[in-house]
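Fill in residues.
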């Protein structure tokens, strides 16, 4: 399926987050649970993005979203930051960049940010190869729900370190398996939830790219070690939540997961990371 220019224009709407993902011709459009996870993920990225801006402490900021897809994550950040004219002025000083393997997503993202009048560039690229950016090009790099699809994520982290400026921040979200919550979920639902990696390659319906499954499901401490070996310092963990991926339809199950989610979200981040099914980290490049 090839999106027409008219479809792209219709989708480019600063306030059409749910509308876009409810379209029948959109990938995962009918997967309600996935939609809610995407909303949670974006709110998490927004919080970490604000934190990163404060850490960097400069006016002109350059941002790279690796595996940007249709740029919905960055679009959400823009929408939420522009609630006042002062914040809109801040956003106008941000240069947005994204890289993805799907030409359709790149085309859509380009049109979306063009319609917003923001400085942006989206590229086709292979994130398993050297990134097509010069050294020290960015202040913030977003890598959300990407590394679990890579055989060698350490190579990507080294590339991120190369393209980040000293003092720049890396925002990471990925699966956290096995976790305490995954085990609890198995017991409560009476279902076996496999922690084995999924090496299948599959098509995203309607999109011109094959995507590997979750071939690198690791706990949080695994990613911590990779970060440190690539020259990053961990600045913060969380926020953590769990309810987005439960998938239970039973009233009792949902109630239990809701309570667990409330508990995990209130735990200190260094403890909550062992219970959450999502790893959420902000790291900083300290030196060259």
């Amino acid at each position: 399926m090839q999106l027409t220019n008219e479809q792209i224009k219709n989708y480019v709407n600063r306030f059409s987050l749910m509308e876009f993902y409810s379209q029948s011709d959109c990938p995962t459009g009918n997967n309600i649970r996935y939609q809610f996870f995407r909303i949670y993920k974006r709110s998490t990225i927004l919080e970490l993005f604000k934190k990163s801006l404060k850490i960097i402490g400069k006016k002109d900021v350059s941002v790279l979203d690796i595996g940007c897809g249709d740029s919905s994550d960055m679009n959400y950040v823009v929408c939420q930051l522009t609630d006042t004219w002062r914040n809109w002025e801040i956003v106008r000083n941000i240069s947005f960049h994204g890289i993805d393997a799907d030409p359709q997503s790149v085309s859509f993202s380009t049109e979306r940010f063009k319609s917003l009048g923001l400085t942006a560039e989206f590229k086709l690229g292979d994130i398993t190869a050297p990134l097509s950016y010069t050294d020290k090009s960015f202040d913030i790099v977003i890598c959300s729900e990407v590394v679990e699809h890579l055989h060698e994520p350490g190579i990507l982290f080294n590339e991120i370190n190369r393209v980040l400026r000293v003092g720049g921040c890396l925002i990471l979200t990925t699966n956290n398996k096995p976790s305490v919550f995954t085990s609890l979920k198995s017991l409560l639902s009476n279902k076996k939830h496999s922690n084995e990696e999924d090496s299948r390659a599959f098509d995203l319906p309607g999109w011109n790219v094959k995507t590997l499954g979750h071939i690198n499901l690791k706990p949080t401490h695994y990613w911590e070690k990779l970060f440190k070996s690539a020259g990053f310092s961990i600045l913060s963990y969380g926020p953590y939540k769990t309810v987005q991926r439960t998938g239970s339809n039973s009233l009792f199950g949902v109630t239990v997961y809701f309570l667990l989610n409330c508990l995990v979200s209130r735990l200190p981040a260094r403890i909550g990371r062992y219970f959450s099914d999502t790893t959420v980290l902000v790291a900083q490049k300290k030196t060259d």
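The longest helix spans residues 32-56.
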